[in-house]
Amino acid sequence: xAPCSYMHCGAExxxxxxxxxxxxxxxxxxxxxxxxxxGDLDDLVDAGLEVHWESNRLVACWNxxxxxxxxxxxxxxxxxxxPVGRIKGFNVDWDSSxxxxxxxxxxxxxxxxxxxQLLENLVGPASxxxxxxxxxxxxxxxxxxxxPLCLWSLTPGPARLSAELQGHSDVVAGVEVxxxxxxxxxxxxxxxxxxWDLKEKSCLFRFAGHCGPVWSAQVDWDSGFAMSxxxxxxxxxxxxxxxxxxxxxxxxxxxxxxAWSGGxxxxxxRFMLTRDSLEPSFAxxxxxxxxxxxxxxxxxxxxxxxxxxxxxxx
Length: 314
Fold this sequence. Notes:
The chain is mainly beta. It has helices at residues 41-47, 254-259, and strands at residues 4-8, 11-16, 20-25, 28-34, 49-52, 57-62, 65-70, 76-81, 87-93, 98-103, 107-112, 118-123, 128-135, 140-146, 149-153, 160-165, 172-178, 183-188, 192-197, 202-208, 216-220, 225-229, 235-240, 246-250, 260-267, 272-277, 284-289, 298-301, 306-309, 311-313. Helix content is 4%, strand content 56%.
């Protein structure tokens, strides 16, 4: 694993291949934390690190547990372990000093970072949880994985399961949520995406078109569009969240698809798509509408000249 860093206003936390986390203030190293046990650095980076610079605290997932460190001393303040299974990820609210974690046991675990106490053990119908979206302002959590999406309410206590969103027939890979609009978009290994009304607890649209598991999606709630892709198909899909319609953007060749790294960024203000490539000659490919609004013809700028990339009917 290549070293990675997390920076803020001249301060930095680095994760090295030597199994050490180091905190820096400019060129001065504040502390060095030796990671012990059977943890995996890739898992640590995938789960992410949360740093609170004002209090010099760091939260990370290592060796199946959530760990809270003091960055000034390098001392571990708390080690938060799941009663059953392995912890895969977490979300922190520094204002309330709470952390919610999820993992292989199908549980969401809510801890106090101040005391290390387990506050809530949220057990739903899912056999395993892949991740969650959290809104600490409204005290709501949407978890997803193997089973239905579960909408949890943390207040007024005790925490309760508000809704089970049934529909996907295979593991849900991800969600994007607009808590202000009470909308959520989920995508799954069953080749579909679904748009949910969290207030009515119902499915508004089922988006079908991919011929394999949907790996990722990006949503712009203001414009009402989403972009998704699957490695099983040489195409990207643009979904209209208002009426359920879609446009399919086909790759021009199998070579172009094989060189694609799977990454894509969308500039929704200009309706321009940049997709990343593993091949240097296709390193920067940009798709954008050739006219105003939702013109179906998109221009692709490539290092070897240019061409048009037009969506076919989905």
